[in-house]
Design brief:
This protein is mainly α. It contains six helices and no strands. The longest helix is centred in the middle third of the chain and has 39 residues. About 10% of the residues are buried. The structure holds zinc ion.
Length: about 130
Amino acid sequence: MALAPDDPRHGTLNGYNNLGCRCRPCQLANNAYQVDYMRRHPEQRERQSLRERRRRDPDGSKAARLDAEWRERQAKRNLEQMRREERAEARELVLRLHAEGWSYQKILDELKRLGHRHFTNVGSISRLVRGYP
Ligand SMILES: [Zn+2]
C-alpha cells in the first residue's frame, strides 16, 4: 500500500510499520524509534550486538584467533619484561660482586649458580665492569 504524497502520516512510525511506507521521513521515524528503544532496553542492545557478532563470525573462529594472537603478544611482552628485569638484576649483581673484589670467573660461577643466563662468559662480565654496554 503506497501512501499518497500529501498523506500526513509520512514521517511517523505508523507510516513505516503499519502502512509499509519506506520514504525517507518514514525511515527516519523508524530509525529514531529503534535508537530510542535500544536506549531504553540495554539488554536488547546486548542481544543485538551478540547477533551481529554471530552474523559476522558464525563459528567464533575469528574471535578465537584474535584472542589467541592477543594472548601470544601478551606472553611475549611478559617474557621480554622478565628478561629485562633479570638482565638488570644480573648486571647489578655483577657490579656489586666486582666492587667486593670477586674475580670475573667467580662472578660467572655465582651467576650460573643463581640461574642467570645473561652473562655466559668472562668477557661479557669484563665488558660490563669496564663500562661497555
Ligand atoms: Zn512515508
